[in-house]
Amino acid sequence: MTATFDPRNVPLPKGHWINGRYLTGVPLIELLRPSDAFAYAASPVADDEVVDLAVTSAAAALQRSGWTTCRPTERANILKRWASLIETNAQRLGQLESIASTRPIAESVSIDAAVTAEQIRFFAEFADKEGGDVVPTDSDHLGMILSEPYGVVGAITPWNVPLSMAGWKIGPALAAGNAIVLKPSEHTPFSTLFLAELGTEAGIPAGIINIVLGDGLTTGAHLVAHPGIAKISFTGSTVAGGAILRNIAGAQIKPVTLELGGKSPQVVFASADIEVAAHCVARGILLNAGQTCVAGSRVIVAKTAEDAFMAALKREMSKHQPGLTWDSATNYSPIISERQINRIHGIVEAAVAHGAECVLGGKRLDRTGYFFEPTILAGVAADSPALTEEIFGPVVTVQTFSDENEAYALSRHSTYGLAAGVYTQDLSQAMRAVKQIEAGTVWVNRYGRSRDHILPTGGYKASGIGKDLGKEAFRSNRRQKSVLIKI
Q1: Which one of 97, 118, 197, 293 is the catalytic residue?
Q2: Residue 457 carries which DSSP code?
Q3: pLDDT tens column, 216-273
Q4: 74 is catalytic
Q5: What's the pTM value of the predicted model, to 2 decimals?
Q6: Residue in 197, 259, 316, 373 annotated catalytic
Q7: Does 70 participate in catalysis according to the annotation?
Q8: SS3 22
Q9: How far apart are CA 59 and CA 485, in angstroms?
Q10: What are the helix and strand counts (H, E) for the chain?
Q11: From CA 167, how far away is CA 21, in angstroms rounded?
């Protein structure tokens, strides 16, 4: 059972996690709790020497531990023990998550910690089930495709759901036989640090998981460019993803997986169950107060269903109440920072100033912390940032359409193609929409990922390169070698 807790009573991990122990550093980044804007901790910043130490430790650990060369079932069994420890320590992981991030404790325990354990188990199963191939060749030759780990991989995770994002990166990397150096967001390092501790307790050799703290410009840039890092996996903004690609192009070419931003449409057809659609649309934008890459921020509704749908959507979006992330009754998140809430407010105000109607919300809540009202904007200009840019907040725009072709045209975005939602009770219509909408994931009569970790996630266009989750994530942590033997 998830319980309300006092954040002052939760001890925090201190320093970087390198070679199975903490390495302290000068605290340079002040950390504020989003729920009450209280400065509660500080984080060091890993410079090039600390990043190099982490990468060197990872490479040495691979050599001495036999993590890459051991029987795959041994790796799988250790990862499964790690998953069990995550479940046993879900309450503490949830507390560390909820202190630093925007995740309410009820969700960080029952969803984030639980999903992370499931992900680790899921990828553990690939360790002894995915390999190379023998391929047809001339009868006097033997052709093989060998599958091998990269060695040391690097990962950078965001602040919005830091625990499960760490699971996305570490799980497939380790199951595939690699070591990893991961940089969590400077806003939310603590649950990831404790996750690494639990990995060592489970039997993952010291140095196979390394966590370096710091910002993107210093720590992230050093990690991406380090010659000892063979592959990079990143989840975050499209702007940051572009910076990573430029860094790699200028330093050392290496493969990347990028799960980036989105401006995802939710298309409501006249045939939809309006109450179901309104509930799902509200969840699609209000989960974590809209601070998810797949947030369904563009609602596109049939004109004939507009009135009924808008009434239902306003009811659904008015149910969510803010609260402290360490209160078990809280079901609506704060915004991560003062800077971000000011950006959200500025985009909404600019849209209204240029003719948009604020149907619901539209302003910062008058309380301590960084809370913004659930907001609906209608009649937004086509070139407004509210309609074109990823807001990363609890704000939806509403557009209407007369026929399917107009709906599909409105759903397309010049930059993004991460996810989409479709609401209809007409199966043929649903299948037409799935084929027409340009997105890496399309949900029908629901919105948001399930706990079916076999489904990969990743976007079209500037929403990313490659996939997280699914067997694709495991395979992306292995490289292929072609072998041809003359018999």
Answers
A1: 293
A2: B
A3: 999 999 999 999 999 999 999 999 999 999 999 998 999 999 999 999 999 999 999 9
A4: no
A5: 0.96
A6: 259
A7: no
A8: strand
A9: 31
A10: 16, 22
A11: 20
